[in-house]
Amino acid sequence: MTASQIGIFALLAALLTLLVWGRWRYDVAAFLALIVAVATGLVPVDLAFSGFGHPATITVAFVLIISRVLASSGAVDWVAGLVRPAAARPSTHIAALSTLAAALSGFMNNVGTLGLLMPVALQTARKAKRSAALVLMPLSFGSILGGLVTLIGTPPNIIIASFRGEMTGEPFGMFDFTPVGAITALAGLAFVALIGWRLVPAEAAGRAASEDLFDIENYLAEVKVPEDSKAVGKSLDQIDEMTPDIDALVLGVIRGERLLPRHGLWTPVQSGDRLLIEGAPEELDKFASALGLELGAVAADAEARNPLKREDAAVVEAVIGPRSRLDGQTVESQRLIGRYDFVLLAVSRQGQPHRGRLRAFRFRVGDVLLLHGEAARVPDALAAFGCLPLAERGVSVGKRATAPALTALFAAAILASSLGLLPIAVSLGAAIAAMVLLGLLPLRELYEGIDWPVIVLLGALIPVGGALESTGATEIVANAILRLTAGGSPAVILLLIMVVTMTLSDLLNNAATAVVMAPIGAGIAARLGVSADPFLMAIAVAASCAFLTPIGHQNNALIMGPGGYRFGDYWRMGLPLEIVIVAVSIPTILWVWPL
Questions:
Q1: What is the domain extent for residue 348?
Q2: pTM here?
């Protein structure tokens, strides 16, 4: 091997190690790999940032924008009503949810689809007295399967289509993925609805639903502030600083007959005030003792004065999303009381409420939060926190009047691309420009829907993937696989490529997997003297199908908290589902895209 080939293999090994380790976010790891590749000469300096202007990167960004604006407009909300009549039986309930998720994910970002349907799934499960664990994993898997059907359904399809365009001059079209993707998705949905949901571990299905986790009303107390109390003359922020090791929260101050809610209260506490505090019994006692407060029984009218019961207030359950600024931060470092005047009341992880100090709690994607604040500010607050609501409580205030026009523009873009009138990136860009010019998409919201870490990942890895080819590293990998399968037919090698890609996708980001495997699959096809199309199609399907772990796909991570799943729960349904996908997709690929 040459020095450049050794260098690119070492760089990829280090990158894969960082991605599996997970200490650094995948976009940071990918950008670091790009900088190292440029510094060592593996990627020419003039191509260092070519990935950020690549059609695949631009298309993914445009799809994310349109998915966000369609979701916020309420354009797809009406379809949720299709689920409720089917909720009487588990199989029909799960079939309706997963099929609906798949249908929407064919044309929307699947994280957005999950965000739309998760509240519906939880609400219908509660009404049917059914565990959230039974419905959320099928919902997540259905949203992933739906992405197989069209070009814009999932980033791997866009990446593979662009790679084919660079290789042959003709990329895959909008519905070139449909024959294989639709058959594979239908087989996967049938398995999920008929068999898969029964494989959810009994202990997961029996864990508490989110509404059972947060019984905060049982820990409400009213304390009086005497003249000699340390709280006199202190604001609530200062009181928080005085009790850093005590897990109790002041919900409001009662002064005379007037309730002063916590948010917006910066005036000092006065002698004679009464504080409404929430916390475990032992924490309430510590809090009162530390500040010299008189802890007694809750007054008869305390329930009426409870800030949680105010008409203008809301208690919201939400899950931390993949782009949340809370991810990896502590409660203390990311103050929820501030611009949006929200208070964190409780938090749970993997179906278990957190019983320790909230101030030191470090957030992760999939954690379920119980937040309290002003009802009118809920949508803006959740958007700012990067959280998705878990209940239908009017927190989505879409501009429904714009939904028909937005849908029409999106449909026109899809039609123009399907007829070959415009490349998909150009048609989607034109649709977004029209939305802005017509006032359907406010400029301030234009970039909010973009998953910037994914964009950085693609922009950084596309030049690194090009270095695999330019250095000849793909030929080395192709030769090694052919030697490993000596005497095997192209169909057997295709099967091996699909299994390897699917395994990588369970551990890495699916877009990263597609970038790395696309040139390898094309190189193997060239060595075999067969068409590259079936190999590229197999990689597209396999890269999108990450069902074994919660880290393989963002949707799997999002449902972990609300569903109360453990890391090892996913493979029970995911492994047989991946076997079904391989068994169905391989013959379908060979039929639709012959060698």
A1: 313-389
A2: 0.76
